[in-house]
Amino acid sequence: MVKAILIYGSTIGNTETLSKSVEEGLKISDVEVAVKNVETASVDELKDYDVIILGCSTWGEGELQDDFVSFEEEMEKISLNGKKAAVFGPGDSETYPDTFCDAVDILEKRLRNCGAEIIVDSLKVDGDVDPKCEEAKNWGKKIGEILKNG
Ligand SMILES: Cc1cc2nc3c(=O)[nH]c(=O)nc-3n(C[C@H](O)[C@H](O)[C@H](O)COP(=O)(O)O)c2cc1C
Description:
With 150 residues, the chain is an alpha/beta fold. It has helices spanning 14-28, 68-75, 102-113, 133-148; strands spanning 3-9, 32-37, 51-56, 58-59, 63-64, 84-91, 117-118, 123-126. The structure holds flavin mononucleotide.
C-alpha cells in the first residue's frame, strides 16, 4: 500500500478545512494518509512517504503562508526523486488577481526542483472554502485513482 503524507499551512483555518476534505477523498480511494500541520512537520520525514501532498494558502502578495516559509526553504536541501506529489490551496482572485494562489505554484516548482513528479493538476480554491469541500474531496479521490492506475 502506498504511504502518503499531507502537510498543510493555514492561518485562519481555510487550508485546514480543505485538508480534511482531501483526506476524506484519499481514504475513500484507500490511500493511507498522515495529515500534519506544517508547524509540526519536518522536511526529513518526507523521505518516509511515496506521495507528498502539500496544502498552502497565499498571503502577502503572492507569498507562502507564514508557517510554510522555512519548510519550503529547507526543502531546497533534499532530493525527492521517485516521489509523487500534488499541491492545493485557497486564495482570493477578486482581491488578489495578480497573485491568485501563487503559493500553490511556488510549492509545485519546489517539488519539481527536488525531483518529485506532480501527478495531478493543482487544486486552487477561490474564495469561501466551505462550498468547495466536495470539490476538494473529489480531488483527493482522484489522486487515489491515479495512484491505483500506476
Ligand atoms: C493580508 C492578506 C493577503 C492575501 N494575499 C493573497 C494573495 O496574494 N493571493 C491570493 O490568492 N490570496 C490571498 N489572500 C487570501 C487568502 O489566501 C485566503 O483568505 C485563504 O483562504 C486563507 O487560507 P488559510 O486560512 O488557510 O491561511 C490574502 C489574504 C489576506 C488577509
